[in-house]
Every structure is written in C-alpha cells, then in structure tokens.
C-alpha cells in the first residue's frame, strides 16, 4: 500500500515535470533541450538523452542556471523544480 | 608510464607504474574516462580526442596530462566552452566579408573584417580561461560543467586593435562606461533574446588592450573558437571574449542580457545572481602542476606545470612537496610572453618512496599570491586555491 502511494506520487511528479518541460515552464525546457521522451528537439543546450543527468543535477542546474540558461528558482516553485528533476532523470533512465 | 586518477573532488593521484596495466590495476578508472567515451562534436572534431574530455557538445576540457606545460597551447587541445551552439562553419568561409557593427562611437557604422584589418594588426599571447575552471574542486554542489584544470590554455591571438578602430570612428561616446560585445549566434524563436543572447559588457578601460581577433596561433580562427572574428579582452575570463562578434557598442549601462545581469556573478553560496555582485572580469594569479616525469629507479622527479599572473605578469612559482609545509622556488622553462600569458615552470627534485602532496603557488608582479583556499561561491567561479589544485604523487 505504501509503495503504491509512493508510486502514485512519483507518477504525479513525473507528469507535472513533463508538462513543465514541454510547455508550462517559461521558457519551456524543450525549447532549448532535446529529450526524446518529451518529443522536443531544442538545439541550444545539451541533449539530455546524452547527458543523462541524475535528479540532483537537474535540480541544481534548473535552480541555479548555467551560462545562458536561466535560474528557474526565480521562475518556478521548488515543487515544480523537484517535478522537473524527477521527470528528466526518469525519462533519460538516469535514476 | 604515469596514470592519473582523481581520488575525490579535491585531489588527484598520479601513480607511477612500470606499465599501463599497472595503473589500470589500481581499479580507479575515473568518471572522466567514461565522459571521454562521448565523441567530439562535429564542429570540433579536429581536436585530439585523447587529450579532451567531452562534458557536453558545448563544453570540451583539456585533460591535465594532455595539457602538458607548453609555452603556447596547440589549438587542437585547447578547451571549448560555447554558451550557445556553434554556428555553421560556413561563416568562416570568407572571414574578410564578416561584418561588425559599431555603436556608441562618434560615427557609428558597420565594417567588414577585411576593412578593419587596414587599421593594423597586432598579436598578443594570453591565457584563455573559463570562469568555472577549478569548479570541480569545490566541495559544495554547483551547477555547470565540473571543470578541473583543463578549461584554460595560453594562445596567440592576432587581430585588429579595437582602440585604433574606435579612434578612427570618433572615439567612445562621452557617457560610455562599458564596452559591450554581442555574439552572432542565431537565437531560437519564442524566447526573449535577452534571456539567451551572448552579450557581455566590460569596463571601457578594456579598450586599451582589446583585439578583434581573427587568428589563433597563426591560423584562421576556427568556428569552435569564435571564428571568423572574436572580441578578445586579455586578462579577462573567457566569457568576456565574445565569439562570432557582430556588434561592439560603447554603452552607459551594462547589457540587459541575462548572461551579464545575473550570470557570471561572484556571490555567496545560496545567493541568486544580481547586478550588484562582482562580474567575472579580471583573472587572478594561478598555477597548477601538469606533468611529473619520473625516474622510478632514482626517485628523480621533474615537477612541471603552468603559471599565470592574471592581469599582472607572473613573477615566480613555488612548489611544495609536502602539502604546503615547505616551499621551493621553481624555474620558468618558457619565455616571458607578456603580462597576460602563462609560463611553464619546472622543479627538479628527488623524492623518497611514498606518497607526496605536490602543490604549486604562483606570485605576480603586483605581489598577489595564490591563496591556500579560494572561498566557496555559489557558481564555483574563480578557484585559484593552491591546496585544491595539489596532486598526490606516489613514488614506488
């Protein structure tokens, strides 16, 4: 039962992360990043299918920004950043 | 044979063994070796793969061993950090036709690189280094590429002195406080350009030394390094050396681009980037060991490395073989190429069997020396602490 609940919460996070990735974050991640699972082919930042960042790295990068990448801490609540981290690390098989 | 193995985020172990197998048998195949499995991106596929760590398609680091201690870094092992994808190499097909716009001067206008060359050409040797070089040695979690020592090189730039061009155009406007360079990358649609454009403002004092560079080490500037033309500001961190330079403006305010306003700002861990914080401009005094060459039978060791002064010429390097307990003066083994260049150094010594912590500490003409530790900062910029850059050397 506990596992099922945890799994459901994770699934919610991943769904939320995908929505943010493909459109709801501003700017959306997919504009600059290629991620097969999300169907995005952005060519500005690293190809996430190649980089395979784990959740901690996604969270740190989205929060702080890198180079020209914005610091989303100023744009998204922490819960959304966590959802993105869960989604990207899951979609690339890093976790 | 020398094997190089990071043993944690702060130190590197260099073992000496009779064979490569001996080194491999240590069983510490580093994460960087795995990273090396990524192929070089097409725009930089002329780099030496064995000397490069491919972090991402836009971040290529020179390995510590591959860097060696040359007076001038060959282009085919020079690191690459692109903030946006490199444009097509087509833009370097006819360098002289490349056009650059000038604003904030007495007579604004656009000139081709071919025309700009008629104002004269100079060469300068200087260190090119990413602000985040040494980030991997910080203990706190940092976003961005985990560069160790290899986001740096010492190269010859040849180009048109910007001061001559600007003087001919009537000089900077009276209110100008910044020299703002804009890169020519194509930006994606659907995004506020200031979010992503590579546009950097440096103090107008940089005009005295800035070049519009079109050659790297005597060869036409490749697209991987900003060709056909790049703004070079000697002594300044890499990000200020804007690639594919399309516009140079003298402005009263800093660029509104994110990369200027909140990016590349030195601030405490946990703090967001903001305009009031120091921008990553002038580099600092720094050195690191790259290549101990060992005679195992005698314990005779040649410690080699490179040392830079930042914006003041490097004047000396001390090497410690006991983790900073005592220091010996090293000798420069390459020419003095000016205040902005690095110099290779060497210390010949005898080491007993065992493990030795080898550190280098450079001093510049202004009297600045590397600190033992550089303070942690949010993005992991500017690390020149000698302790973090030390290596462990094992004589067996």
Automatic annotation (TrEMBL), chain B:
<dbReference type="GO" id="GO:0030151">
    <property type="term" value="F:molybdenum ion binding"/>
</dbReference>
<dbReference type="GO" id="GO:0008482">
    <property type="term" value="F:sulfite oxidase activity"/>
</dbReference>
<keyword id="KW-0560">Oxidoreductase</keyword>
<dbReference type="InterPro" id="IPR006311">
    <property type="entry name" value="TAT_signal"/>
</dbReference>
<feature type="domain" description="Moybdenum cofactor oxidoreductase dimerisation">
    <location>
        <begin position="279"/>
        <end position="391"/>
    </location>
</feature>
<keyword id="KW-0500">Molybdenum</keyword>
<feature type="domain" description="Oxidoreductase molybdopterin-binding">
    <location>
        <begin position="93"/>
        <end position="257"/>
    </location>
</feature>
<dbReference type="GO" id="GO:0006790">
    <property type="term" value="P:sulfur compound metabolic process"/>
</dbReference>
<dbReference type="Pfam" id="PF00174">
    <property type="entry name" value="Oxidored_molyb"/>
</dbReference>
<dbReference type="InterPro" id="IPR036374">
    <property type="entry name" value="OxRdtase_Mopterin-bd_sf"/>
</dbReference>
<keyword id="KW-0479">Metal-binding</keyword>
<dbReference type="GO" id="GO:0020037">
    <property type="term" value="F:heme binding"/>
</dbReference>
<dbReference type="InterPro" id="IPR000572">
    <property type="entry name" value="OxRdtase_Mopterin-bd_dom"/>
</dbReference>
<dbReference type="Pfam" id="PF03404">
    <property type="entry name" value="Mo-co_dimer"/>
</dbReference>
<protein>
    <submittedName>
        <fullName>Sulfite oxidase</fullName>
    </submittedName>
</protein>
<dbReference type="InterPro" id="IPR005066">
    <property type="entry name" value="MoCF_OxRdtse_dimer"/>
</dbReference>
<dbReference type="GO" id="GO:0043546">
    <property type="term" value="F:molybdopterin cofactor binding"/>
</dbReference>
<dbReference type="InterPro" id="IPR014756">
    <property type="entry name" value="Ig_E-set"/>
</dbReference>
<dbReference type="InterPro" id="IPR008335">
    <property type="entry name" value="Mopterin_OxRdtase_euk"/>
</dbReference>
